Amino acid sequence: MERVMQVLLILHVLLSLVYAYDWFKEHERVQEALFRLVMVLLIPVVGFLFFHVLDFASRRNQEADLEGLYLGSQNYDNDLELLRPMDMDAELNRTSVEDALRMGDYRTRRQAVMETLKTEDNLEYLEVLRKALENEDSETSHYASAVIMDIQKKIQDNLTMREAAFEREPDNVAVMQALEQELYRVITSGVYDEHNLHKYYVKYKMVSDALLSQEEPQEEWFHGRVQVDLATGDVGHARQVCRQFRDCYPDSEDMVVDTIKVCIKASDREGLDEFLAQIPSMPVLLTDEALQYIRFFRKRGRT
To answer: What phi and psi values does residue 74 have, to the nearest 5 degrees?
Structure first.
């Protein structure tokens, strides 16, 4: 009997290790994989069942959201960003700062906010810093306000420098590209509200038109213009850009995702179904993250 228990224990450990390793290979999240490993080791059988039910519920919720997008019954402006792989390093950094602001003592909270000043690009912490503005500790809120002002100053200084260079050399493509990148950074940063963004949208579109008229427009120029067109509600022009994008870069994953976004934004189910049917014949290599959503849309289109 004791030998049987030993064999069962060894099998349980091996199955737990295989389960955790397979889950990590699919999701690439070390901490959660280790947590799942510990849970299934400590709670035999029930641990596996628990995570199976949890994953099933998560998939069902995700499919419900996607069906809402496909049918046009709900408006998810940001959900299609799920098609893009997550920046795990940035996400973990933001999470650690947010945890410190929520759970740490006042000294730790203040230090967490000020530490963001030392990062090369503290813009990624903007959302967390805005939450810190409402922190119960007035000093933490004051520090967060100071960091946000620093972010705004850096962005404005960089933009002013790029605009001055463009005025000196309006026909220089490299200078034009640098200005386009900085304007796109301003637009997508979340630092300014929609009212203040209007002038930046106008400038961006002017520079973007000049870049896209070049003999060999770059892939990121198309991608950025589609995002801005969608942000300003110019879906018709976004369609035109996507067609040009596809002609120039038929192997671009960004082109595929952007075209799907435009169809969703336009509530064009017929156009979406037609485009999805064409994807297998395109010379494009899609990431697993994007493929799972595209497969869902294709499957839904056949029902």
So the answer is: -140, 155
pTM of the model: 0.62
Domain boundaries, the chain: 2-71
As a whole number of angstroms, the distance between CA 72 and CA 50 comes to: 33
> What share of the chain in percent tops pLDDT 90?
29
User: What pLDDT does residue 12 have?
Assistant: 74
Nearest by Cα to 200 from 181, 187, 185, 182 = 187
Query: Locate tokens 């870049």: which residue?
Result: 211
Mean pLDDT of 60-68: 51
- The four Cα atoms 277, 283, 287, 290 give a dihedral, to 10 degrees, of -30
How big, in percent rounded to 5, are the helix, strand and coil portions of the chain? 80, 0, 20
Q: Give the pLDDT band of residue 99 (cuts 50, 70, 90).
A: low
Phi, psi torsion values for 45, nearest 5 degrees? 65, -60
H or E element at residue 75: none
Q: Which residues of 6-26 are buried (b: 16+ CB within 10 A; e: fewer)?
A: eeeeeebeeebeebbeebbee
